[in-house]
Write a structure and sequence with these properties.
single chain; mainly alpha; globular
Length: 165
């Protein structure tokens, strides 16, 4: 019984630490967005908006939302997704500049590990998932995602953390 209790306690602690880390990374990203203002390439924002819109529409369809309801909220959704697209593009440039200065890179081993973890989570063979990423030209995006995450980890390690009272 104690083993089970200790296991649950350890899992809860691990989950809390993960959630705390995500919250701190989100605060860092918010501060970066507030402190840096610059013009963004419209084509990149438009491309990001298209991706986010398609993703949102697919999620709504999966949840059973009908076309008429989606259409009635399209303008509101577009405004929200436009802001999100601008923030994502801006963060890309900010984190890329920091990664270049600090010489942060993703490694082949990290990419392989990420794909391996994804394969396990979807209960799929590693080679099949890796081939899917290769065939769909997703490896470069994954490497960029790992690099951004490592850059945020670097910023978190360098940050002065102040607890709110």
């Amino acid at each position: 019984m104690d083993d089970a209790r200790n296991e649950v306690r350890a899992q809860l602690l691990e989950r809390k630490q993960y959630n705390d880390k995500v919250a701190m990374k989100n605060q860092i990203m918010e501060q970066l967005l507030k402190k840096h203002a610059f013009d963004l390439p419209e084509t990149m924002v438009a491309r990001q908006l298209k991706v986010l819109t398609e993703k949102a529409e697919n999620e709504l369809k999966q949840k059973g939302v009908d076309e008429k309801t989606m259409e009635s909220h399209k303008a509101e959704l577009k405004d929200q997704l436009t802001r999100e697209s601008e923030n994502k593009v801006k963060l890309y440039f900010i984190l890329d500049a920091i990664a270049n200065i600090e010489k942060v890179e993703s490694t082949d081993e990290e990419t392989e590990e990420w794909i391996r973890n994804l394969a396990v989570s979807y209960n799929q063979p590693f080679d099949k998932v890796k081939e899917y990423y290769r065939e769909n030209d997703l490896i470069g995006g994954l490497e960029e995602q790992i690099r951004e995450d490592k850059t945020l980890d670097f910023l978190l390690d360098e940050a002065e953390i102040v607890e709110k009272k």
